[in-house]
Amino acid sequence: MIVPLRAAVAVTCGGKAGALGALLRAGLPVPDGFVVPFADPGAELRPAVEELGDAPVAVRSSASDEDTAHASAAGQYESFLAVRGADAVIEAVRACRASLFAPRALDHQGDRAMAVLIQRHVDADVSGVMFTPADPGDPTRIEASWGLGPSVVGGTVTPDTYLVAEAVTRTIARKRTRLDRRGGELVTSGVPLGARDRPAIDDATARALAGLGGMIAAVRGGPQDVEWAIAGGRTWILQARPITAAPPPLTSAALNGMPGSHGVATGTARIVRGPDDFARVRPGDILICPFTDPAWTPLLRIAAGVVTETGGVLSHAAIVARERGIPAVLGIQDVTNTLHDGATITIDGTTGTVT
To answer: Is the confidence at residue 267, as pLDDT, over 80?
Structure first.
């Protein structure tokens, strides 16, 4: 049986779909869709998919241990954007289910099940992540960049940062690339020079997002990690999950990098530019990398800390670092060339410094 997203609950459809279903029932702006639940992996998808026509969809994991109050499983299961046609959707559903057994997900122990969410794809002009306040008086924290959201959550761009309280405080990053859909493909392109240093959202939009965040937290019963997108002037909520580990507070703009995960670590700098370098990493090393793809999650199990050239505090890599209790410093330009492989360094993930 295929479940309409509006009817989805976590116990049968996983954490991601269950949360979005609750938000839809509360009248919040979530792209509609349907779910293949745990109990029916052999569901006949073709009639439901063919009803969508040729419209592109997002095919997304919704595992039983994903987006829970204890762990996010951020980036550890597969999701696919810009999927078009029944055959492609069915293949993407199979790949989502298979990702339950991928190496990067195998540290999630116990009985697990995978539901799969199929939603209308949103061609985002701007997208990002928002952390709602943990305590009264705390600001809402928003990160934003041009194009589709994987650039922000995957840490391949350093996004703008907005703190929304009585006033809006913003730090504008140089956003060099963006991800967009072209037909049935995702394409990375350079941001025009005039837009790289321009704010991705204005203060009014930041306040509106913070207001939405407050409503989402009320529906879900606690602080939330929210993925959002704006397309054609309309805001959509793409994901909401409990905040498993709060980021450090932003401090002085004169820091070497952005504080991403609390703690201090001293160890051997290990320059990692891609999978060919993985075998060189030893327990206790500090990863120095351009960014961290979700496939790099196994390295975070043995590393003492991580430093990146791009990426925001709300990206998957930073979330996983906080869950594992290792320090992370983000957005230090050209750090893979500045530091020497094998050097002894100290990183402070609370202040965003590398010594």
So the answer is: yes
